Amino acid sequence: MVYIILYGNPIGNFINDLGFSLKYTLLSIWLPYSFAILIVYYKNQRDEIESLKTNANKPTEKRLIVFRDENGKIKFSVLASDLLLIESTDNYVSIFYILQNKLQRKLLRNTLKNLEEMLKENAIFRCHRSFMVNPANVEFMQKTVKNSILK
What backbone phi and psi angles, to 5 degrees, belong to 133? Predict the structure, then answer.
């Protein structure tokens, strides 16, 4: 294009020479730029798929834990991040959780053994014969001679 401006006939063939120059310049640039854009698009899509795969495996904070009684009926649900511990007393369990920044307790007719089977996938662990805890909410643990303290 600079060649046409410097050496071309500005009066007669300037428009024709400019059109000819633009046509072949664009045709020669089109293919490499198209491939470059496709490669960048492919890499962005691949990175997004990888990030979605890694985020899909992470537990979400908004996951609900459903509690059922001994007959299998749903009694209530608690956010996994709000569940603190479950205490067993014979055929009843007390479920301690946080609701609106206050400690709440629900009594449920079920055994800890049944709840242990239901809560395996939710990473709630049985730490004692009568207790299950949510390790996400344990900040401090101390073992003494007679017992263990979890806070």
Answer: -130, 155
Between 49 and 149, name the one with better pLDDT.
Answer: 49
pTM of the model: 0.55
Angle at 40 between CA 34 and CA 44, to 5 degrees: 145
- CA distance linking residue 77 with residue 133, whole number of Å: 16
Q: Where along the chain do its domains lie?
A: 2-57, 64-150
CATH of 64-150, one of 2.40.50.1020, 3.40.1180.10, 3.90.1150.10, 1.10.10.10: 2.40.50.1020
- What are 77-119's pLDDT values in tens digits? 998 888 988 999 888 999 999 999 999 999 999 998 888 888 8
CB 134 within 8 A of CB 124: yes
